[in-house]
Specification:
By secondary structure, this protein is α/β, with parallel strands linked by helices. It has a domain of about 150 residues: NAD(P)-binding Rossmann-like Domain (Rossmann fold), CATH 3.40.50. The strands form two sheets. The chain has an eight-stranded mixed β-sheet. Helix 7 packs antiparallel against helix 13, helix 8 crosses helix 13 and helix 16 crosses helix 17. The longest helix is centred in the last third of the chain and has 21 residues.
Amino acid sequence: MAPEPYLVLGCAPAAVSVALVLDGAGFPVQIIEPDPSAAERALHAMRTHKDRLLPLIGSALPDRIDGILILSEGETEISDLADVAKRTTQKCAVLALGSLAGAGKIFDPARCAGVHLFEPIHRRLLAEVEPLCETQPDVVQAAEALAHRLGKTPLRLAPGMGSAALCLLDRMIEAADTLMMDGSTPWEIDEAMVDYGFDIGLYEAQDLAGLDVAYERRRIAEPTRDPARRYIPISDRAVREGRLGKKIGWGWYRYPGGGGAVIDPLVEDLAREEAWFAGITPRPIPEPELIRRLLLALINEAAMLIARGHLADWKQVDLIARSALGFPAKHGGPGVVFEKWGATRVLQELDALCDEDPIVWTPSSLIRRIEGRN
């Protein structure tokens, strides 16, 4: 039996990486990108694979879409999907890379599932599979099969619960953005993370994924965001200024000639200007404090996910942190760090940070219960 064909919609970096892996494994793959400039950016970003990638990219949708349709995250507006949905058959499985917010409203929800991948894709071993309540078993199987074909272990999420790994990642990014607002820089934070044992820093990883991907998640979450929670606008402004990441050679870092990351002093100017608008006097933040805050953010968010039943226990937290976020194996994971530091220390440090921001740093009820038993 011939393998089912894959049709990838959009040239986002993650989608292109998926297409290249599938093509290399012998699966029939086509990428549809109606925007010539987006296709050109993808070819430039993947120029070492240009000869393989060029034949895979087309601009016109087929009249009939069977097999497996993969939706790029952050690349396709919801309005663009209506015509695509009309062309899908009942046999088509629609796999959204990232948020299902658009796909679940336009495509048949019984034929949709989400697949969450994490950057750098070639290093991250976990793929979260997120079904909807209506998702049929064969679509879930198609999502899990895709994960295996990408060399990853699929973790099936409960319908409606969302991605636990993204919750942890977004909370860590929020903490990092606050540090940038208060006086640090993306490269100082990334360097601190690499020194601690991460294989890549948060900001360089965002450049690989595309800054517009996280921007789209923030846009979708905007109606439910607590208006009293401190919001850091630096990332939004970076996207509005056209800083989309490595795919265009310009994000948190510059990538001259498509090569490695180079510090861009204009990013620091942007951050200092936003701090001035907010009435903040920047301060030097030492590396130990950078890491301590990122770890506290991860520990507290993980405790909240466990308390809500989103994650089973600290072992699952550590597995996700290592496999999806690149948390250094030598440190075990947020759960191991929590056990090493002790609930009393963690609670004291979170309470101290509440003086700065009581909403963001309020300790999880789980940490308070654990501390109370000690």
